[in-house]
Each structure stands twice: as C-alpha cells, then as structure tokens.
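Design a sequence for this backbone.
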C-alpha cells in the first residue's frame, strides 16, 4: 500500500465542516451533514443508498432516521462475503461533536477516497461503508442495519464501528479505566483501542494487525465476555446491535469519556483534537481494512 496515505488536511477539513454546529436527530445540520457525506462518497465512486427507518426511543417517542449505505461498483467480486465499516453521523443536541463523531466520519471518508486505489486484486471481502443515524439515541441506526442484514441472510463476516478517533493525551494518568481493567491497560491516553466480544477473536486479531503497521501508534485490544453486558462502556456504539444479532463486530475508539473530558459537551471542538493522532489512526484503519479484505474472515 505504498503511496496510499491518508491526507491530514482532508481529515482536518472534514472534522471542521461536520462539527461547525451540533447534528442531533431531525436537525437541518444533520441533513446537511448527510448531503456532505453522500456527495464525497459519490465523488470517490461509491453508490450511496439512503435507508430510512423508524424506531422507538425511550419507549414512547418514535424517531425517524436515515442510514447511508455505500457499495463500490468497481469492487472485485468477493463471493458475497461482506465487511461493514461504519461511523455514526449524528451528535448530541448541545455538542458540535468534533471527536464524537466527526473524527470517525472523517476517517471513513478517507477510507472511501483511497479504497478504490488500493483494494486487493483478489479480495476475499467486499467493503460496505455506512454512515449511521441516531446512534446518540441508543444505537438505533446500527440496530436497524443489523436487523436488516439478519433478515436478508447477508454473509456478513465482520462489522467495524469507528467511534471517536481523535483525542489523545500523552500525560501519565490521563487515561481512566473501568475498575476491572486497572493495571491491565496503560494509564496514559495515547493508544487506540480495538474492542470486540468473544465471537470476534479473529476480527480483533486481524484489525489490530493492520493498525500496528502504523509507526508510533500504540494499539490495545480487549475481548469482552458474551456481548459486553458486564462492561457497559464497551457497548456504546453501533457495533453492539451486531453483537446482539450474533455477528463478529468491533469498536475502534480513543475510549471516549474515559479519556476525553469534552465528551457530550459544547467544548468537543476541533481545537481539542490531536490531528496527528487522528491521521495515524485513520491510516491504521485503512491498513486494517486492506488486511482484512486480503486475508478474509
């Protein structure tokens, strides 16, 4: 993959555009963000399908969302086997969401731009990219997509949720950890985490191997029992409905509120992010996707 490097300036531009104001459910800013992502995916040759859905929130309120699902017409045949990589597009109503989750959408857009130039000649997996909706309302977009895949009997070999990729802190004791993990992981918040469940061992191994191709990018992995019910922080992204549906799935994350003090606050702005860290993580995700498509699952 020599020469297939993510563009730091593009990443910064995407984060700045997407986080210019909050993007909550049903907002005009979310509609504009949807249009922005669709146009950029189309420019890179992806066929983007809008998939509307309706879901209940808090048991009473019905919310309407739209997932953006993209496939590339030029992708080499892979026998129907699929790898899904996604990032949620929405934010909390009171937060511009630079890390949560413009950082991950920016990485997704760079993967989309570069993938047609670097896919393996004999790919074992077809890549599907998804901009999920209504994650902040309970992973509703992920739940709808997982249910649709199960209903259609899709040969989904793995799903990867990109969730907050841009916050880094090199100071000692900058990383909080759940009590059960204290002493097992670093207390410095400068690593990217690969989190899967016991059904995702091969996916964890392969994705981490791709990330580790990037120099100066510390990578930590975690495999949780069952579907993460005993460590709820590991379920807080669109991968968890895929766990519940029986699919191997991962969350790639800077660990969210365990590191980033701006989580869900108005202060989650581009200025708080480490763009060099985001560049390395995005490059690592591209390397990991290429590795997965090459070796299969």
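Sequence:
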């Amino acid at each position: 993959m020599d020469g297939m490097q993510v563009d730091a300036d593009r990443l910064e531009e995407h984060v700045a555009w997407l986080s210019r104001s909050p993007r909550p459910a049903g907002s005009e800013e979310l509609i504009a963000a949807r249009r922005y992502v669709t146009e950029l995916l189309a420019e890179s040759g992806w066929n983007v399908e809008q998939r509307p859905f309706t879901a209940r929130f808090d048991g009473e309120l019905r919310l309407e969302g739209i997932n953006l699902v993209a496939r590339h017409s030029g992708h080499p045949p892979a026998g129907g086997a699929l790898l899904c990589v996604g990032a949620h597009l929405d934010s909390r109503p009171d937060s511009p969401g630079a890390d949560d989750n413009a950082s991950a959408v920016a990485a997704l857009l760079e993967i989309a731009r570069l993938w047609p130039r670097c896919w393996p000649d004999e790919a074992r997996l077809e890549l599907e990219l998804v901009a999920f909706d209504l994650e902040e309302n309970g992973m509703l977009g992920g739940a709808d997509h997982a249910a649709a895949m199960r209903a259609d009997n899709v040969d989904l070999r793995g799903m990867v949720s990109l969730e907050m990729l841009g916050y880094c802190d090199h100071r000692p004791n900058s990383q909080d950890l759940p009590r059960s993990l204290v002493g097992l992981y670093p207390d410095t918040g400068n690593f990217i985490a690969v989190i899967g469940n016991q059904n995702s061992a091969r996916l964890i191994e392969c994705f981490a191997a791709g990330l580790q191709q990037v120099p100066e990018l510390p990578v930590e992995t975690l495999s949780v029992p069952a579907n993460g019910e005993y460590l709820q922080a590991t379920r807080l992204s669109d991968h968890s409905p895929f766990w519940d549906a029986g699919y191997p799935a991962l969350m790639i994350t800077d660990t969210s509120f365990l590191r980033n003090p701006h989580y869900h606050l108005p202060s989650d702005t581009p200025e708080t992010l480490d763009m060099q860290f985001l560049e390395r993580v995005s490059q690592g995700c591209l390397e990991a996707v290429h590795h997965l498509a090459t070796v299969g699952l």
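The chain has one domain: 8-295.
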